[in-house]
Design goal:
It is built from 16 helices and 10 strands. By secondary structure, it is an alpha+beta fold. Bound molecules: fe (ii) ion.
Length: about 425
């Protein structure tokens, strides 16, 4: 017994409880409690700040953890920008602008390949999880590629996410949420490892939906109370699939678990509020809602970005984390690439490149003149000194009949005049 105990203790790390963090795995070293009354010994993963706080509150002073089972130590160390600091970043340190390193046209092909691969992977894991299998191997490389594409020119992947119309909304949605989460993390100034974890949480956020019976998931009517309960279990179902996977940083399952929790309470599955909700959970919620509002579905048109952000602004405080929401709005800018706009001379166009320095002066492809006659896709840089035009307002695709995906020549969209 003595030798075995010593061997176990070698692998463990003794910490003061003040050093405990979410994502550490507590182990029981096999010592009688009478010998060490202030040693906390309830084995398991600390999945929230509240769990850590409870141990401190109960007066324990020391604890053994097993770093090899602690997601916080995955891949050789804790996160490079602890998410506890994210609040400060959100409160003002993040720029929320991602300056492109390359042109939209130079990145869009690579971005389309990453997008395709990611949609294919989501399709695969949503199917496999029903048979109890989950291969997270490809996820790391895919998320790396997403992050790389965002660093090159975020507008490319972002416009593909919003404007591409392929079948399989659920799969596209998971990829889009992953892209928006990764973009938010980078725009907020998070390090690569943290941004990777946030994007991964977005990719897997609805994993639990694959475990909801299809008659509930695809019910073509309002769900009754019992069915709603089953549906609302999807964050917990997904969380349970991921939380013990070796090497996964604790924030990933937490983001999945909390993506339907709401700032003022009243969300699900636990109905928690404020700081009890993980920051990743808040980021995934923002991305989830924005993508759902802007996506075109069989029963509705997608909202233009500015309108979706307006709806979300009304949800601040009560449902969405107010500072993080402001960061999210700043990240997407006033006129995201793909916005259909009416110009000061009555012509219509599509934003084809943002302007980090002057967000109100993006580059626009003019598609129709004031008399609604087609123009030969003239590119107009509103920041250019000899430009006299400005944007009057944003229009919806339905109002104008202009298809921004075709105007931007997005891969996978048939080329035509840019009008439906
Ligand atoms: Fe969900």
């Amino acid at each position: 017994m003595g030798a075995e105990l010593n061997k176990n203790l070698e692998r463990m790390k003794l910490l003061s409880t003040a050093e405990l963090k979410t994502g550490m795995y507590v182990v029981a070293p096999g010592i009688a409690w009478q010998e060490r009354p202030y040693l906390y010994m309830e084995e398991g993963l600390l999945s929230s700040d509240a769990a850590v706080g409870k141990i401190l509150e109960e007066g324990y002073l020391e604890v053994y953890i097993d770093p090899t089972r602690s997601p916080i130590y995955a891949e050789g160390g804790p996160l490079d920008a602890p998410l506890a600091e994210t609040k400060e970043i959100v409160a003002g340190r993040g720029t929320f602008r991602l300056a492109p390193k390359t042109l939209f046209a130079a990145e869009v092909k690579a971005a389309a390949e990453v997008h395709d691969a990611a949609v294919g992977y989501v399709r695969e894991f949503m199917r496999d999880i029903r048979f109890g299998k989950l291969d997270m191997g490809p996820a790391t490389e895919l998320v790396n590629k997403i992050m790389h594409s965002l660093d090159q020119n975020a507008d490319a992947l972002l416009s593909l996410c919003r404007l591409r119309r392929t079948d399989g909304y659920t799969y596209m949605h998971c990829v889009n949420v992953s892209v928006l989460c990764g973009m938010f993390a980078r725009a907020a100034g998070m390090g690569e490892k943290t941004a990777h974890a946030v994007s991964l949480a977005g990719l897997f956020h609805d994993l639990g939906k694959a475990l909801v019976p299809s008659e509930v998931l695809n019910a073509p009517r309002r769900l009754n109370e019992a069915e709603r309960k089953v549906m609302n279990a999807h964050p917990s179902l997904g969380y349970e699939q991921i939380r013990d996977v070796p090497g996964v940083i604790a924030e990933v399952p937490l983001g999945m678990l909390h993506h339907h929790e709401r700032y003022g309470g009243g969300g699900y599955p636990a109905g928690i509020a404020g700081s009890d909700i993980s920051l990743v959970g808040y980021i995934v919620a923002l991305a989830d809602i924005y993508d759902a509002l802007t996506s075109k579905r069989v029963y509705k048109d997608g909202m233009p970005p500015h309108r979706a952000l307006g709806v979300m602004y009304e949800m601040r405080e009560k449902e969405l984390h107010p500072e993080m929401l402001v960061g999210f709005i700043r990240m997407l800018g006033v006129y995201p690439v793909g916005s259909v706009v009416e110009m000061s001379d009555g012509s219509l166009g599509v934003v084809n490149a943002g302007n980090v320095e002057a967000p109100l002066k993006p580059s626009v492809v003019l598609v129709r003149d004031a008399e609604n006659r087609p123009l030969p896709n003239i590119v107009c840089d509103l920041a250019s000194p000899d430009n006299a035009l400005s944007i009057e307002c944003t229009m919806s695709e339905a109002e104008t009949g202009i298809d921004p995906a075709a105007v931007l020549k997005l891969p996978g969209v048939p080329p035509h005049a840019g009008c439906k």
